[in-house]
Amino acid sequence: MDNIASSDSSPIETTRQRPAKVQFSGQAGEFFGIWIVNLLLSIVTLGIYSAWAKVRTTQYFYGHTRIEQQPFRYLATPMQILKGRIIAVIIFALFTVASMLSPVLAVLLAMLFMFASPWLIVQSLKFNMRMTSYRNVRFAFHGDYVGALKYFVLLPVLSVFTLYLAMPWVLKKIDHFICTNISFGGVKMQVNTDTSSYYIAALVAAAAVFGVMTVAAIIGVVLIGIMAATGAGSAGAAIFLGSAGFFIMYFFAFTLSAAIYHCMIRNHLFERTELPEVAKFKSKMEVMPYLLLTVTNLLAIVLTLGLAYPWAKVRKTAYLASVTELLIYPKADTLVDEQQADSGAFGEEAAGLFDVDVSLA
Amino acid sequence: MFAVKAVSGQFQQAGSSALYAATASLTDEGKLLIQCVNTAAVLAEVARPDYRFGTVLPGLPVEVQLRSGGIFRPDDASWRWPQQTAGSGMAAALESNRLSILAAVLLSPLLLWWIIVDLMPMLASASVLLVPDHIKQKMGEETFYTLQKTALQPTQLPATQQATVNYHWQMALQKLPLQQKNYQLYMYQSEFFGANAFALPNGTVVITDELVNLLQHNPDAIVAVLLHEIGHVEGQHSVRLVAQSLGATLVIGILFGNPDGVADLLLGSGSVLLQNAFSRDMEREADQFALKQLKTLGKSPTAFADAMSALLSSKETSPESEPALLKYLSTHPATRERIEQARQHQ
Questions:
Q1: Domain named Peptidase M48: which ranges (chain B) (predicted)?
Q2: Domain range holding B179?
Q3: Which has the higher per-residue pLDDT, A48 or B127?
Q4: What is the ipTM of this complex?
């Protein structure tokens, strides 16, 4: 493989601004082996190995995702993941048992969880960003509890009173909160998204749901008409066909609107995001290829009883990489993360007691 | 110092995005030397405790991490450092070996099936012993209170009818060797539940006016239904069901993580089907309990079949049998199957 570290000077100076693509080189067959062997080891060790599995899987995907031949790196250690999982399991078990004991306690706990969840979200984002590095420079997340409480709890709850009319605006605020608090090598992301783009995306997605339902209703009426006219089919068969049809339609409408929203918002968000003097981003997602990808992935997973999952995941990652482009500025080649350069040690050893991602996944 | 073998690759200092084309060599004593290719300058020279090898993954190079934060990555993805410990490449070897992959494909579903079908119900039954009586008492009281406020209205049954039901209930309680002592029967009118009966973990059993009326000419059938509910309490089914659902959610969550949207939907429906399967198993267990105790009381197990038939004809307007696939969506076994079981009970 050609390495960009091949010119005369040392270190290699690349003083020009240049476009770059995201490359993903993961192989479905290779990842299948990793996935299935890790699954077996996780089962045999009653879930303990799942922390190692998570680290290996993430390292595989990061290591195969390259920009200008340079891979991303995942720095978390299995022990950190294991600690987070043990905490999550204990919280979840206590929560379930307490809810079972008393309906009143269940409501109180749900309230408590609502106010604790912003802290968990911030904690998780901080952990995952700090554990991600590119060209030996780490990402970081700077959001705080108050901000997360406002954007993840208060605004969504308040939008209920606007009959969800304010929801696209809330979603824009959430994306804005997350992205502007991400930094790379000490450089914070700048985001300049439009509220109107979020409304347009939500409207188009809603129109798609409405369209699918209209078409399905027409087909249903025609079918009922045919059945009534010919006297074919029993009531039981009709109920079964009806519920199956409803499920498929519900699922298709859900997938289609999700694909539309995801494409439009990702393209817009990337277009309006930059790391000043380091990089600008571009996303060129299209609805039809992405919808086709999602639907075929799902069908493959269902028809193989889950065995196609690694193939589906590799295919989706490769697609998302292929539609992502960057414009890289010269400063990207000389970034120095002061804090990280000072911290010494192997990195994770400097981490604090609560440096965990409290999550089952 | 004698360099054993030089590997070409690239080097980066701690927290710096600057890239150096470099070579790395390891001496016999374990000293690591990293040199710039173009200037031959020494970029790093560290002894054994101050560097370590990264994770070995199929298809990816194994990097060397320095304690200072620097990184050297070989250009050759298949390069393996001779000094790596024997165990470090084991996971990667298993992940790329055809035999171990085949074994994993065969064993994973089997073990998963065994865990869910055998191990978890077993653990759930064992965990029941850990739940103290006063907690079950509290569970029952709280739920009963909530139901009284929401779904239950005072009984409208005439006093004589209530007395008949209570008489049969008391006779059954006296004659049967039950583990739990404080069984209490209540009658309530309920539009929400319709003709139904249920039991709470503290021994509270509720039968609705609607069900008493439906079975008023067949007291043995009422006894059969009450015995079924006692079966739930004796088997500690409420606690077991919670323990099993908790177990299933944790197993699925930990093993499959949070796959995006669509797969999530599948796993979600999977765990609903699983919970329903647990519930059906417990209904069957309670049915078996009722049939056995009916015989202890000197009554015919067909009384249970009568109760089920009455319920069936009160609910089903069409004689159409339940579609085969729908049975997986149900929390109870098919009524016809339960009637058959009762008729065949020896």
A1: 170-344
A2: 126-344
A3: A48
A4: 0.79
